[in-house]
UniProtKB/TrEMBL annotation, chain A:
Recorded topology in the membrane: Multi-pass membrane protein
Gene behind the chain: ccsB
Membrane-spanning segments: 14-35, 81-105, 111-130, 142-161, 173-202, 223-246, 261-278, 290-313
Name of the molecule in the record: C-type cytochrome biogenesis protein CcsB
Residue ranges occupied by any Cytochrome c assembly protein domain in the UniProt entry: 110-314
InterPro entries reported in the protein's UniProt record: Cyt_c_assembly, Cyt_c_biogenesis_CcsA, Cyt_c_biogenesis_CcsA/CcmC
UniProt keyword annotations, A-Z: Cytochrome c-type biogenesis, Membrane, Transmembrane, Transmembrane helix
Organism: Pseudonocardia spirodelae
UniProtKB/TrEMBL annotation, chain B:
Domain ResB-like positions: 45-533
Protein name, as recorded: Cytochrome c biogenesis protein ResB
UniProt KW Cell cycle keyword: no
Membrane topology label: Multi-pass membrane protein
Keywords on record: Cytochrome c-type biogenesis, Membrane, Transmembrane, Transmembrane helix
Start-end of Pro residues biased regions: 1-14
Localization: Membrane
Region (Disordered): 1-25
Length: 319, 548
């Protein structure tokens, strides 16, 4: 038998469960973020009162006042629930991907559905690791979850494909090396993309009230840099393994196929980002953040537009 | 460069030829100054950044516009759909972006900028490797990481401990005027090494690519999978050939390939599952030595045959139907030539033209006008659609069927004009020199009788494979450079360049000493704080630490 329909069905169910759990996580992350804003506003009012009364140094926002503390702890609870739900989602998601592999009896990254699904898992995983290391980032989770949930929705609807064997070109151990690293790198790069966008909002946007609770511009910038520095070599490695594979599968290691070309463009943009960030004027003006955002936009463009509209040799992507 | 310059800020360079501002520079020095400024401008980080952007921007049309090198048909479509725009795009090189002068100009400028940036840095790097780490700053408390404490142990002991702890760091010890002793330590040179390796590898990749463009070639040839042979001896053996700039085809690696069998397997829905061709080959050496045997091998997708530094790929397959024409006088001829797949969905529905000349005809005029072409459609697994048309429902040879139209007359093969092997000359049909004399739907073994009594029989089918031969002397170099590049990249992005200073001042009275520590990371990777704290904890007795 080529495909085990029972396992395939369970893989699909886990995917749906993942989407539901992620949605719930998004709700709690939003609650946390919103409550944080309330707490902050309340704290600010108290501050004003305190300053008016005694001229004492203002309390740190949210550190004082019963109203502030109550909302803060509730926000904290929501935040924790959100993170726990993300962990649960990551587990069901992993289950869904692994079962896909067993159902089709192959490496489960053979088409756009599987690829984008895995990309989302990588992004969630990256975020969980980051939050564990830097708990202060947690309230920004809503901004990572939103694009992930959107992507997952598109994956489950537009991109969905039944489990099936892949065409001969994909029957190679290179799929494990090439596609897995590219997925990992792309998923990781979602985080700096979002962080850079938030950096720009923080720096240039009107100080909209919703942006008040964001981490500081500096920490967003640092976050973007740290993750990019990890993901960029991976992406590079992914492209190189793609070239090695192309040499065996398509008869040449580089042929400016649309997917290759856009991967090249994204690579150049990230290289430019690293250079820009090392140039003082570009870093602080936000130019570096713009470049990083453009880099991730290019990756998304490569994934959707090039696969679905342009189509080249990579077009077994199967949509 | 992907990290901030690690050299200390340099004083402004004094120009060697710069006299006092009042003396007017001569024309020579003005030209020199212009050159120098151009060079400096070109090698600045800002220029590199702008060039990087331009390169990214310039590559984009290559993905969005149809490219002739990838698919010439799509370019034709574009011409048809945008008749006004297409010539403009053509003039700008939009259909051959990666061969266009402006694309080359950008990456060459970028390369020059890169070389100009990397070479001075390499020199600077080599110099700083040989220099001892910089002096300990006067005031360590001003550094981002610092700590101090007092110890009951004498200064010598403390220094020995520090030396021990800083094993593996580059160190320099100095004694200051007031008797304080210092250790300057430095680590993370690999960052700079990685950075240089990365940038130099980029140049390596480019050189490798250039070598491929100059000395590489690529050719396609269709070979029937019935023991037919192909030898890589001249361009003429190929159906199509793309030569590198310095390749004239006189110097190909003369190996031979014999295709014994084509094996394909498909899923029930017709999706390909595996493709492979059983082949034998003789290396160039075998051919020169006249070795009679063939080395067996299997060419499959993802598994090319590699011999003589060349690669032979299986890039397509199809079918060659075999027909036998028997004329009323009893003479017969058998013809077998590849037909080409015409169906995009992979059912291998094929079209072609198998051409015959009547044997034994001496009169040239009669010979010319008695030629026969068996044309039409071939389906490996034939079925009939509601309109009565032959379609193929599976790419495998399950029920080979041919809808043939037999043409009789002048095929035009004596005109001296080359013609496609897959079709007849439409002009001859339009001129009435080639007439349709019979149509029939044939299974294997079926025959069709022409009005003059000639019989055409569909004998059977042989698969053919399309072999692509690739030769690229640069590709190993490109791979080596690319691997070095990722290695360098990973090093330069993961290693922190950091400094650590220890100042031990002997106490004015007694044996004790005062220890001051300072640390500085030259790049903004996290993690140095922890390492610094660890070193500090080791060096300072926790009870008397005064942290900063
Ligand atoms: C130089 C050559 C190559 C480059 C630069 C390259 C680049 C990429 C990139 C950037 C992605 C990210 C996902 C996306 O945007 O769709 C990707 C995905 C993928 N690549 Fe490659 N690739 C190369 C060669 C190959 C080869 C030879 C194969 C297989 C025959 C292959 C199979 C895949 C698959 C299966 C995916 C998963 C996502 C999808 O289906 O679109 N790639 N590649």
């Amino acid at each position: 038998m080529l495909v085990d329909p029972t396992i395939a069905m369970w893989s699909d169910r886990l995917f749906q469960a993942t989407l539901v759990v992620l949605l719930l996580a998004l709700v709690f992350a939003s609650l946390e973020y919103a409550a944080g804003r309330v707490a902050r506003a309340a704290a600010r009012q108290e501050e004003l009162a305190a300053v008016g009364a005694s001229g004492a140094t203002p309390a740190r926002p949210g550190d004082d006042g019963t109203a502030g503390r109550a909302t803060r702890t509730r926000a904290d609870r929501h935040g924790r629930i959100g993170v726990s739900l993300m962990i649960l989602a990551a587990l069901t998601h992993l289950g869904s991907i692994v079962l896909r592999g067993f159902a089709a009896y192959r490496w489960p990254l053979g088409n756009m559905y599987e690829f984008t699904s895995a990309l989302c898992l990588m992004a969630v995983g990256a975020w969980l690791v980051l939050v564990r290391r830097h708990p202060g980032l947690r309230p920004a989770g809503v901004f990572v979850l939103t694009p992930v949930v959107l992507l997952m929705f598109v994956t489950g609807t537009v991109l969905y494909l039944d489990a099936a064997p892949v065409v001969p070109a994909l029957q190679s151990y290179w799929i494990i090396i090439h596609v897995t690293t590219i997925t990992l790198a792309s998923g990781l790069l979602l985080v700096p993309g979002v962080a850079s966008l938030l950096f720009l909002v923080k720096r240039h946007g009107k100080p909209a009230s919703w942006a008040a609770k964001l981490p500081s511009a500096e920490s967003l910038d640092r976050l973007a840099y740290r993750v990019t520095v990890l993901a960029f070599p991976l992406y590079t490695f992914g492209i190189i393994t793609g070239a090695v594979w192309a040499e065996a599968a398509w008869g040449r290691f580089w042929g400016w196929d649309p997917k290759e070309t856009v991967a090249f463009v994204a690579w150049i943009l990230y290289a430019a980002y690293l250079h820009a960030r090392a140039t003082a004027g570009w870093k602080n003006s936000g130019a570096a953040a713009w470049i990083n955002t453009a880099g991730f936009a290019t990756i998304v463009f490569n994934l959707f537009f090039i696969n679905m509209v342009v189509a080249g040799l990579h077009s077994y992507a199967g949509v | 460069m992907s990290s901030p310059p690690t050299a200390p800020p340099q004083p402004p360079v004094t120009t060697p030829d710069g006299g006092s501002p009042s003396s007017r520079p001569g024309p020579v020095s003005r030209v020199l100054a212009l050159l120098r400024n151009t060079w400096r401008g070109l090698t600045s980080m800002r220029t590199a950044l702008v060039l990087l952007f331009l390169l990214a921007l310039a590559a984009l049309p290559g993905a969005l516009l149809p490219q002739r090198s990838l698919n010439a048909f799509l370019v034709e479509d574009f011409y048809r759909d945008n008749p006004a725009l297409a010539p403009v795009v053509e003039a700008l090189g939009g259909f051959e972006v990666f061969a266009s002068p402006w694309f080359a100009a950008i990456y060459l400028l970028l390369m020059i900028s890169l070389v100009g940036c990397v070479l001075p840095r390499t020199a600077e790097y080599l110099r700083s490797v040989r220099q001892p780490p910089v002096m300990t700053p006067r005031n360590l408390a001003r550094l981002p990481h610092h700590a101090e404490g007092v110890s009951a142990a004498p200064a010598d002991d403390e220094l020995a401990r520090a030396r021990d702890l800083l094993r593996g760091w580059r160190r320099a010890e100095r004694t200051e005027d007031d008797g304080a002793r210092t250790i300057s330590a430095e680590k993370g040179f690999l960052r700079e090494t990685g950075n240089l390796v990365f940038h130099l590898s980029l140049i390596g990749i480019l050189l490798g690519l250039a070598a491929g463009k100059m000395y590489g070639y690529e050719g396609d040839v269709i070979v029937r999978a019935d023991g037919s042979e192909f030898c890589n001896s001249s361009i003429l053996g190929y159906d199509s050939f793309r030569a590198g700039l310095r390749v004239d085809g006189t110097d190909l690696n003369e190996f031979c390939v014999r295709v014994d069998r084509f094996d394909g397997t498909w899923l029930p829905n017709g999706q390909p599952s595996t493709f492979g061709a059983s082949v034998g080959y003789q290396t160039g050496q075998d051919v020169r030595d006249g070795v009679p045997t063939w080395r067996p091998d299997e060419i499959a997708v993802n598994h090319p045959l590699r011999t003589d530094g060349d690669r032979v790929y299986l890039t397509g397959y199809g079918y060659a139907p075999e027909f036998t024409v028997t004329w009323p006088d009893g003479q017969s001829r058998t013809g077998e030539i590849q037909w080409r797949p015409v169906d995009q969905s992979g059912t291998q529905l094929s079209e072609g033209a198998t051409k015959f000349e009547r044997p034994g005809v001496t009169d040239p005029e009669r010979r010319r006008t008695s030629q026969i072409a068996v044309t039409g459609t071939f389906a490996p697994t034939g079925a009939v659609d509601p309109q009565g048309k032959l379609v193929s429902v599976h790419p495998d040879l399950r029920s080979p069927t041919a809808d043939v139209e037999v043409l009789l007359g002048d095929l035009g093969i004596d005109d001296g004009r080359g013609q496609s092997i897959f079709s007849v000359d439409q002009q001859k049909i339009d001129d009435g020199e080639l007439r349709s004399v019979a149509t029939a739907r044939l299974g294997i073994g079926d025959t069709v009788r022409l009005p003059d009594g000639t019989v055409v029989r569909f004998d059977g089918v042989t698969p053919w494979v399309n072999l692509q031969v690739g030769h690229d002397p640069g590709q190993t170099w490109v791979l080596a450079a690319a691997v070095l590049m990722v290695g360098g990249l990973a090093l330069s992005l993961s290693v922190t360049r950091r400094r650590f200073w220890v100042r031990v001042t002997p106490a004015a009275t007694g044996d004790g000493s005062r220890i001051q520590l300072g640390g500085l990371a030259r790049t903004d990777r996290a993690g140095y704080g922890e390492e610094f704290d660890r070193l500090t904890a080791e060096l300072l007795d926790p009870t008397d630490t005064k942290d900063g």
